[in-house]
User: Fold this.
Amino acid sequence: MPETTSILFQWAILPLLIFFVRIVDMSMDTIRILLLYKGKKMLAPVIGFFQVLIWLFAIRQIFLNLSNVACYVAYAGGFACGTYAGMIIEEKLAIGFQVIRIITRKDGASLIASLREKGYGVTTIDGQGTTGKVSIIFTIVKRSQIPAALELVKTYNPKAFYTIEDIRSINKDTNYENIM
Assistant:
């Protein structure tokens, strides 16, 4: 009976453990990189510390079981699934701000008024596109507010062209109460 338990552990339990540990490790890696990009200097190293501890556990098990191919497959599978899980977590956290740039040939006054009514800061400029005069509308929003802001754009001008870009940092000395 102990040999059966040993085989079960070596070929099923240990690879599953490595797999799930790698998912946690890689999810943390994705979040750590995001925090570095967003300038969160204190939290990223803490996450990195625990990430490396987890990685050391996983790699130690690989080295202790070099003849176990299931551990290799679990390690690689955990890496892939952890990367995907990290992207999903990052998307749900929606940390930071983004700028929405809206370009419209249609009069943007009602869209601008609606954005301002909902508390979004708006800057506009007149421009010249390939087909004539355009209005260019800029607004900075929390990442979590992007769907609501885009719904306003689509309501007032479904054919408006827009782009969304990440913002690494904003001037904290400026009053951004409407977007924070």
Summary: The chain has two domains: 2-93, 97-167. The chain has five helices and four strands. Strands lie at 97-104, 122-129, 132-142, 161-167. Residues 2-93 form one domain.
